[in-house]
């Protein structure tokens, strides 16, 4: 499904006893029912999807557009899924509304036909300031356009026990979908947050879950030798606190946004952490690579690529004119792959710590496996550095102050 290669990573520094005990602690948390770790409890794909398929079908059949209102990982998990794997021709256009920028909101209102638009609002707590504000603005737009069936086009994934979002849903008669307890946004890649929107997009979510389950099986059975553990240890033992993550396809961008978020929000606390930097190749070869090659050697590099390009996409090539020289009659995918390989070679010559993560094919199964791998990798690094990978106390300070300022307007 995916392959990882390491360069300039000194495996002799690894403490196998530490890696074993770390993996064992995580598996114990999964098996004991610790709510934060339940996202890795292996479930039958059909059981995870059975209550979501009907909702997805309703939205696909009734609406031309769908707005997903959420923040942070609750946006990035489904967004990277749709961006990387695409939508089928019967899917409504999916728009992600994750910013209180009024220009952004206005631009979205200009491109949708609101009478044919549904929305899904997502918040684990039901108290997310930005999400609730955007829901309020969209409901007012429905009202302005004399749309009376607001409840029939409104879907909420949230805490069913308490929260403003749950109360709003009840008042307007919206469909309520439970947000798995204890699962924060950045770890929601295997929860209803991603699964529902993937189904609406027409993505093969059975295969996506299957890919994740295979990674979980390996993690729980191999402990110190599993791929996520070895991957986490390569970062931990590199002693580099800047993680540079570069994808060599444009569709990697939302995925890289999510990977930055899960690194920053999970591991940056107690005076510890890693600074994630994201980029796209070959774009960054014309900007950041100068710094990466000849600047401070304080970085660990991860490169993401796809091994098999669909023949329909791979058919694009340069015209066969002599004036193009070495570029004549070359496939665009081969040129892109050459840039990917050349960049790794250059960094390798500088003896910098690198890994390449290559998906074998553009499939739901491979993508689900990679996402699950990186979630387990991040939690493992949290255990190794002795920080809680699930909370975000610094963010809570901003939320409290924002509410105070808004209340005083």
Could you describe the 3D structure shown?
This protein is of the alpha/beta class and 409 residues long. Helix content is 49%, strand content 14%. The protein contains 15 helices and ten strands. It has helices at residues 16-32, 45-62, 73-85, 102-111, 129-144, 164-172, 192-201, 205-222, 227-236, 253-267, 289-294, 311-314, 332-349, 364-385, 393-407, and strands spanning 2-7, 65-69, 93-97, 117-123, 154-158, 175-178, 242-247, 275-280, 299-306, 354-359. The strands form two sheets. It has a five-stranded mixed sheet with strand order 1-10-9-7-8, sandwiched between helices. The protein has a five-stranded parallel sheet with strand order 3-2-4-5-6, with helices on both faces. Helix 5 (129-144) links the parallel strand 4 (117-123) and strand 5.
What is the fold's blueprint, element by element?
Layout: E1 2-7, H1 16-32, H2 45-62, E2 65-69, H3 73-85, E3 93-97, H4 102-111, E4 117-123, H5 129-144, E5 154-158, H6 164-172, E6 175-178, H7 192-201, H8 205-222, H9 227-236, E7 242-247, H10 253-267, E8 275-280, H11 289-294, E9 299-306, H12 311-314, H13 332-349, E10 354-359, H14 364-385, H15 393-407
Parallel strand pairs: 2-3, 2-4, 4-5, 5-6, 7-8, 7-9, 9-10
Antiparallel strand pairs: 1-10
Helix pairs in contact: 1-14, 2-7, 3-7, 3-10, 8-14, 9-14, 10-14
**DSSP helical segment count:** 15
- Overall radius of gyration: 22 Å
Fraction of residues in H or I helices: 40-55%
What structural category characterises the helix and strand content? alpha/beta
Unreliable segments of 5+ consecutive residues: none
- Order of strands, main sheet, comes to 1-10-9-7-8
Chain oligomer state? single chain
Distance between the termini: 52 Å
Total number of strands: 10
Characterize the main sheet.
5 strands, mixed
Shape: globular
Percent strand equals 5-15%
Q: Averaged pLDDT, please? A: 93
The arrangement of helices and strands along the chain is: EHHEHEHEHEHEHHHEHEHEHHEHH
């Amino acid at each position: 499904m995916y392959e990882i290669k390491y360069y300039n990573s000194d495996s002799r520094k690894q403490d196998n006893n530490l890696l074993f005990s770390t993996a064992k602690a995580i598996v114990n948390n999964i098996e004991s029912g610790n709510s934060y770790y339940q996202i890795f409890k292996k479930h039958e794909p059909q059981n995870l999807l059975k209550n979501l398929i009907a909702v997805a079908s309703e939205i696909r059949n009734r609406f031309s557009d769908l707005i997903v209102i959420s923040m942070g990982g609750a946006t990035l998990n489904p967004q990277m899924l749709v961006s990387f794997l695409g939508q089928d021709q019967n899917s409504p256009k999916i728009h992600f509304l994750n910013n209180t920028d009024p220009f952004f909101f206005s631009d979205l209102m200009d491109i949708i036909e609101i009478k044919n638009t549904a929305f899904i609002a997502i918040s684990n707590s039901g108290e997310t300031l930005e999400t609730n504000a955007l829901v309020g603005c969209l409901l007012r737009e429905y009202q302005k356009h004399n749309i009376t069936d607001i409840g029939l086009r409104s879907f909420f994934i949230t805490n069913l026990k308490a929260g403003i979002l749950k109360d709003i849903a009840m008042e307007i008669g919206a469909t309520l979908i439970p947000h798995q307890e204890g699962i924060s946004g950045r770890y929601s890649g295997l929860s209803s947050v991603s699964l529902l929107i993937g189904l609406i997009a027409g993505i093969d979510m059975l295969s996506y879950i299957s890919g994740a389950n295979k990674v979980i099986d390996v993690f729980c059975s191999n402990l110190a030798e599993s791929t996520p553990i070895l991957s986490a240890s390569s970062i931990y033992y590199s002693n580099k606190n800047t993680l540079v993550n570069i994808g060599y396809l444009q569709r990697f961008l939302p995925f890289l946004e999510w990977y930055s978020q899960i690194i920053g929000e999970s591991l940056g606390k107690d005076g510890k952490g890693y600074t994630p930097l994201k980029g796209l190749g070959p774009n960054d070869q014309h900007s950041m690579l100068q710094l990466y090659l000849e600047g401070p050697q304080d970085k660990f590099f991860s490169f993401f690529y796809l091994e098999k390009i669909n023949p329909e996409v791979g058919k694009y090539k340069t015209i066969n004119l002599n004036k193009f020289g070495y570029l004549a009659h070359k496939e665009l995918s081969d040129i892109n792959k050459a840039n990917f390989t050349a960049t790794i070679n250059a960094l390798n010559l500088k003896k910098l710590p690198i890994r390449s993560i290559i998906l074998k094919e553009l499939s739901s199964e491979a993508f689900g496996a990679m996402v699950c791998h990186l979630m387990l990798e991040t939690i493992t690094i949290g255990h190794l550095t002795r920080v809680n990978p699930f909370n975000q106390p610094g963010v809570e300070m901003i939320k409290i102050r924002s509410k105070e300022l808004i209340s005083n307007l």
